[in-house]
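Possible regression after last week's pipeline update?

I re-ran a chain I had predicted before the update to compare outputs. Posting the input and the new output here so someone can diff against the archived version. Not blocking, just want to make sure nothing changed silently.
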Amino acid sequence: MVGDKLFEENPTLYAFLPLFYMVWADAVLTPSEITRIKKLLEKQQWLTPEEKTFLLSFLNPTSPPSPNQLKSWLKEIKKTSDYLSPEMKSSLVEIGIKLAKVNSRSGTEETINNARKPLEDIEKALGVVSRESAYHFNSLVKRTTEEVGTSSVDHNEINKILDGEDAEIIRKVKTLLQDPVFEYYKGESIHEYREQVLEWCKLLAQQGLGGIAFPKSYGGQGDMRKYFIVMETLAYHDISMVIKFGVQFGLWGMSVMFLGTEKHHKKYLKDIGSLKLPGCFAMTETGHGSNVRGIQTTATYDHNSKTITIHTPTKDDGKEYIGNAALHGQMATVFAKLIIDDTDYGVNAFVVPLRDAKGKTVKGVTIEDCGRKMGLNGVDNGKIFFDQVQIPLENMLDKFGSINEKGEFASPIASDNRRFFTMLGTLVGGRIGVPKAGLSAAKSGLSIAIRYSNQRRQFGPEGGEEMVILNYRTHQRRLMPLLANAYALHFALDYVTQRFLKRSDDDIQEIEALAAGIKAYSTWNTTHTLQECREACGGKGYLSENRIDTLKADTDIFTTFEGDNTVLMQLVAKSRLSEFKQEFSDINFFGIINYLTDQAKITLTEMNPIIIRNTDEDHLLDSDFHLNAFRYRERDILSSAAKRLKHYIDQGMDSFDAFNQCQYHLFNVGVAYIESVIMEQFVLKVKSLEEGNSKNVLKKLCDLYALATIEKNKGWYLEHDYMEGAKTKAIRRMVNKLVREVRQDAIPLVNAFKIPESCLAAPIVTRI
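New output (post-update):
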């Protein structure tokens, strides 16, 4: 741009440089910005048509300025640095006017001054904060901020650790969310809210975020990790939008991608990614809930017509709570039992039309609106019933099961069980996306509650000033362990995501169990965190304007969908028992001797009289002590559950009844395993960091997560003689010490999430 002949002919154009630079500094030009700038430029009579076209050419989000162009703009702008006062009084317009004058010729000063008002209108329309912009142009002028507490932690450094390799896509999504078109819906109409959420999802699709996980040949980037990151970051905004986004591009789109073959990809993926084809994921049935294998909707194949008939036998077999169904969905991935010549070939998936492009339901399809819910009222959940709906054979998603030319069922996987779990295993991503979104909601609640608590004053010493409530130990005890949980889960979810992305046939069942457990543990944590944050903000937390009520209501269902949490924890336990059984079936006599020897070593090293009552600070803050405590508990609960099950079965009880007798025990197997995984990943992350303030504060958070969790389970440790009372009391004192120390860094730790202020949107929070 700089150096173009138009600038030589009209130096006044230089006045636009600061504005255009700031527009592109975030590398994201939002829809509202484009529209506003275009309208304002069109009105400028002092610009020639050629100059207008030239300036408008820089407003295309698909063809942004190159890095070299931005550098040249910045270099040109810095010519005005001498004009910037230490008080930063210069605005973008003033910088632009001065830049134009620096490059002007005699006789052009009046024209330059005439540009001032139009430029001010553009600056106002963009909402650019001049003081913040000016910092961008003059590194010599130092920003002064009021320090809070005695923290020496740089929240930007912590943010780099949190965002890691995903920083660029996170920044893009956060920039989009700050655009005025994403302003929260404040009305009461469910219909208007649903339409607003749909419009937001369309805008996200236009930015290429919807189909980001789809193959490049179908309009995507082939990047599943980015999809998870987009979901996680969007959850700082409206959760209805996140769920609508996840249903459309995750459940509907990825069921076609993972369960279908090339013909389905060619036919559907581009239109799904652009939201031209809104769809649903129809698995759950009213009468069968989490029991997917028990669904009763049928898909009966007729070889003569080469059609499949989808049918709902009874009202209890209807697909219920299906997102996108009540209003917008035109097609659905429907899970149904495949019937060929009266033989049941188990659950398979089919693409079934629901509505035409005008919204009219197709023949045989009945849809009911689920109506108003506790939350997520921007999502149009519905019930779907099928009455002999015929679809062509090609609509069967046939990656794992198909019907050949003879009309026979064919599959690369012979076992019905293995085929079923392989099919569901490809869809585990939902159990990663949901806890990531829930964690973002928890981070939002913590940011609101902690920042408010750092300002809200109440009580104090006699005759003295009131004290900020975050300085009270009870408040620290309420919020600091939850802050530690948020960081612990952040790193654990990243680990589970990596495992899922690198999965193989050999470890898919282990990963499915891991994802199930982390989903349950994390979403329970979200529910608990938001309730504590609401209470920590007192009456202010109860006001809708401060957003915690919406976060609570919208995420409450997270403990239920993608699998009921209690059921999921039992799935984890069954997986752990299978691995436990396999471990012993694979080892010989000497292996058993080695196992017993290892157990004896644990008794000698961890449960000797000195260790079980050791209260030294170095010991209590030792990561090896934490890991050993978590692993011992997980292993002991697992082995005792296995013994208990074996006892019932040896007495003649069938396996179903034996599992039913041990359900609570098995639940604890799952929880102990997930806590152990979280602990291991937090320790590994801290160890990987370079020495410095960031590592030190994250080590404190890691210690706090470890000791607060041990304190929570102290009854178990006391019952099993792993610790004595003196040690659990010392752990309680150490937790008190850690929450006080973490409190000093609490503000930079929540600011490190870098949640856009427009997303927090809570009047009780001011920027700290």
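Follow-up from reviewer: compared with the archived run. Residues 323 and 512 are 23 Å apart (CA to CA). Marking as no regression found.
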